[in-house]
Amino acid sequence: MVTLEKNNTPALRVLFAAGADPGIPLIFLAPDGSTKISNIKGYATAVFERNHHISSSTQLDNSDILAMLTNQPVIEMPSLLIVRWPHRPVQPQLSRHRAGLFASQNSGTSGSQTKLSPQQAVMTISSQKMPTFSHNPPAIKPRVYNPHSATDRKQLVENQGNTFSYIKKKDRDGIKKVSVRIGPVHLINGLGVYAEKEISKSISTTPVLIGEYRGERVDRNKEDPNSLYHFNLFDRKRSRVIGGIDANHQRNWCAFVNHSHTPNLEVIQMWDGKETYIGFFPCKDIKKGEQLFIDYGYKYFHHLPEAIRFSPLYLHSSDNWKSETELFLDNKAFYHPLVVHFDAQMVERLKLKTNTWIVPKLFIFILNNELSKLSQELEQLEHVDLYALALQENKLAAQAQEHLTALMFAAYLGRTDCINLLLQAKADADRRMLRTGYNAFHILLLGFASHKQVATIGKNLLAEMHDHFYSDNNGLTLLNHLVKENNIRGLELVLNYALQEKIELTEYLFAPVMAGEKELDLFDYCIATKSFTILCTLIEKVFSSQNTFLASLKNLMKKNSLFEAALLQSLSKEELTNLKEVLIQTLPKSFVNKPSKLLNSLNQIIKNKIAEEANEEEEKEMTISPGF
């Protein structure tokens, strides 16, 4: 019989490695004299559960047991091992609260459990271990092309089936030659452009022109409606399209730059004194290895021919040729070893395609609000925005991935302190879910945060965001989501931030947004959804500003062009009266004392509604029912 006074784990590992039965009895002697009978397998399981904060439903095989126990000197193998715990303050055991939280959904555990908060019920950890993934590299490494190499250009054209020719024309004066590569992009099963070296946004504050979009110049009446590579050219003085550049049959590397709602390149129409051309400028510093993006624009995808129409993915500059399996294997040590399940509400709100996921350990610490462990994990991580991976039939299904990051998960739960730690660790607040286009702020509005928390967390997120008003895959911006959620506090926060940072709001408030089958601006959106209180907040904030948008709004209200006439006509008499009262309370006295055409129009519509109701009542009274 052997007594181990302190660390018994090394001895147990040696015993097991030497061939001891995992069921060999162990007697644990507590400081108070009580005993607990267990075995090697039970002890290893307890170590595993303690380290990963899970319940006692875990099933380990022999390789798991060996992995749980550390490698230390050999001791004689006994038939009975007594492990005496030294006298020390009793350590708290796994609480029922935590055990219940992490219990398997299918474990059928009975007995009383501490009631979970809604946030803690969002994710449960099963007893199922993550599947074993292996990656077999292709026999031929995916080809990456240097657009400045004649050999690579020729190979690129041939590998793309000779469907286009590469333009060899010398660059214009003023274009800075940058080191880029054309290579595969796993998520779209196509090609993209990557920075071979860092690309700076500017040199001594002067914007850097790094490329020209080249192709065939076509007249406005001769453009190919089926081309995916057509860039419009505009007459700015007359505000009309005068033609375009089509890279469908002739192109350079700029035609391979993919779309993103958070681009790192800006497209600017240029004039060199002889002709108009399209220039690409970095709008942020681009790191080596990052993918280059431009924004194709909201209308590009909606106006594609129906036969080839598709919804864009919200690609990130870190997305490259690596598959989900490769990315997981590169970062396996930072993922939790057991499969988790998101609750039905989260799946529905975030439009996830499955509830079964493998998540980074960061998610566990955020769920439990364990700040010290979260901080320690962040210090070890090279990639803070490591995202959850969707499982379908024990595979990392490409079509189910959403790139849900720890920052997004923390935003959904409303974990203020966790979000602060993640932002300090440089988590990307601009990052978006792959298919919905939701960023952390969008998700904050869909989750558990109160309006007060939205104001607190939202302020921190806004300060770290660069792209505040880009739309999701429904064409909705943060402003639209705030209106939809009737979140006045959040709307005030965003509008105050925009006014403080002197962000011109005109294009965002008057940009067409899909509402059902109609395209409406934000003001009409408020009318269509009967969100009059939100409308009041919008108008109030605009009138408190001093910018060009204020003048535009005043002009529209005077002309009665702010709201679509048909929408006003669709309101009931009570709704119209409510809208009128909201406007009178919100608008400056000058607008109320000297009524604009808008108020006059509202008064007239209300009178017409009253007259219509009176006529209907009169007709009812004049109708004689049969039998009287």
UniProtKB/TrEMBL annotation:
Cited Pfam families: Ank (PF00023), SET (PF00856)
Domain SET: residue ranges: 176-297
Protein name: SET domain-containing protein
InterPro entries: Ankyrin_rpt, Ankyrin_rpt-contain_sf, LegAS4-like_SET, SET_dom, SET_dom_sf
Superkingdom of origin organism: Bacteria
